[in-house]
């Protein structure tokens, strides 16, 4: 089921958390597979005739630890796309690429901006951040170069710059979002690499779960909005299939709340979807490794999720 489930991860000593030496060993194993400057930035910049583009920070990964391959370094402007909507309209935040390897989150956010966003500019102020973690996007990784998961870093003690720069930008707006839709994927590599590496880094036992075949959502356990989630799934179901629960009634080890939905304590866990006090939040999860889905379909499912959520909010406001 997984390449490392029954054998130690190739870095570190089982049961012992990594120190800086092991983290550097992990970093040196990474490779760049694609470029943010070629596949993401031009598409954002091309939106400048229709939206306002704001740089809310930058990641300077030019000076990585001694001995790191030079090809892993990089400097990344962090960009947000804002609709030119009246300031009295409710604010909705869309984020993608918090885990850079989750490709459809990035591509879905860009596709939504290119094809659908202006259909909602009379109802909402929209802010979309298509690629929160560009180094992770380039290296197809869950972590940043310091072996930190940005999607566990949106709390007050978070250490990932990717998370804290975005959080500071949204806070500085002085306007609380009414909704936040965060775009993610669950992949086979979650079991074969990323969760195994996490267990090795923290010196704990890895818990392997079945990867759901299909689309599902993660709601906030502290302020759940089941009707909002249902509206999103109804829209997505027109594009791709919704994940069935496993025989124990769970998705990724968590009991379902309704078909296709589980709840997490998003704020407590430092997840991106919990970084504001937005009343309506969701984290999408697409399964790109499904034999029944294509990369284009996964991106379109993300677009459908955003549109489904916005349509629900627009109807609820009437």
From TrEMBL:
PROSITE patterns, A to Z: PEPTIDASE_M14
The Peptidase M14 domain, residue ranges: 32-318
User: Do you know which CDD domains this protein is assigned to?
Assistant: M14_REP34-like (cd06231)
Cofactor names:
Zn(2+)
Specify the superkingdom: Bacteria
Q: State the Gene Ontology BP annotations.
A: proteolysis
Gene Ontology terms, MF aspect: hydrolase activity, acting on ester bonds; metallocarboxypeptidase activity; zinc ion binding
Which Pfam families does this one have?
A: AstE_AspA_cat
- Give the record's keywords alphabetically: Hydrolase, Metal-binding, Zinc
Family to which the UniProt record says this protein belongs: Belongs to the peptidase M14 family.
What is the protein's given name? Zinc carboxypeptidase-like protein
